[in-house]
Design goal:
mainly beta, Jelly Rolls, six-stranded antiparallel beta sheet, 1 helix, 12 strands, 50% strand, disordered C terminus
Length: 177
Amino acid sequence: MRAFVTVPTTQDIEAKFTYRGRSKTETSLGSGAIRRQFGLKLRAQDPCNLVYAMWRFEPKAELVVSVKSNPSQHTSAECGNRGYENVKPTRYLHVPPMSPGSTHKLRAGMDGEHLQVSADDNLVWEGLVGSLAMSFYGPVGIRSDNVKLEFELRAGQSGDMRPDHQLACKPGSGESE
């Protein structure tokens, strides 16, 4: 599942979710790996240029922050799974393992290059995403792979809209990441 917020927001997003287990069908990532994960998107200019904060449930419980950058590409068909770079944190704590029926909260907030990610109200990842991530601009959103979830999403409302702002994707475009 992929989604993004269609109104101007700050680069702050929070999802309270209940993990319902594995999806009925599994789909491999572009790399061929099968992961069960849920994450938040920041600065999501399009499917090729954004920041991810992903809570990976399986095969290993961990929080991974990645910058996906493909400056001359703007559709999934163009960039595929290329352009990912995992970011090393200055602070990292392990995330708890996931079990069906458990409820959790994932929150991410950016102030310039500085990113903080909390899981269940505990700061688990903090660091600088780098200047490359600052070269694109877009809304916040979510992504999941191979899991069933119920969730409530909150994003910081902003009246600040860049003059060149365009939605990262258009509903019904058939694009995927």
